[in-house]
């Protein structure tokens, strides 16, 4: 049991202390953006008393996705790169539709 605990402590020290650098900070900032998009969506839904996806959700998605893609490129992780790159296409396309619909709605008025 002591050996397993020592291994866990050594592992956590390696991951969170020894390997801690500017790239890890970027990764945490990117993850913060992704977390904030869900917080924004949750607050908007609670206020509306129904499921709502506010525009800020897509901006946080693009910000977090872009930063995580940069981080994944640095780490050279093909699974992570593919996932973030494809996700960015979806986020940008949704924001495009929102902008397009907003322009059409304002021109109809």
From TrEMBL:
Tell me the organism: Bradyrhizobium canariense
Q: Where is the Lipid A biosynthesis N-terminal domain?
A: 26-97
Alphabetically, which GO biological process terms does the record hold? lipid A biosynthetic process
Q: Name one GO molecular function term.
A: lipid-A-disaccharide synthase activity
Entries under Pfam families matching the protein: LAB_N
Write out the entry's keywords from A to Z.
Answer: Membrane, Transmembrane, Transmembrane helix
- Transmembrane parts of this sequence: 20-40, 52-74, 80-100
Can you name this protein? Uncharacterized N-terminal domain of lipid-A-disaccharide synthase
InterPro entries this protein is in?
Lipid_A_biosynth_N (IPR011499), UCP028440_lipidA_biosyn (IPR014546)
């Amino acid at each position: 049991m002591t050996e397993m605990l020592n291994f866990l402590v050594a592992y956590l020290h390696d991951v969170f202390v020894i390997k801690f650098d500017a790239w890890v900070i970027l990764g945490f900032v990117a993850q913060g953006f992704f977390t904030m998009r869900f917080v924004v969506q949750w607050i908007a839904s609670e206020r509306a008393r129904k499921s709502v996806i506010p525009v800020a959700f897509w901006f946080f998605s693009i910000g977090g996705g872009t930063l995580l893609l940069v981080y994944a490129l640095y780490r050279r992780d093909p699974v992570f790169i593919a996932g973030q790159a494809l996700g960015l296409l979806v986020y940008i396309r949704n924001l495009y539709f929102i902008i397009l619909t907003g322009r059409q709605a304002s021109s109809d008025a």
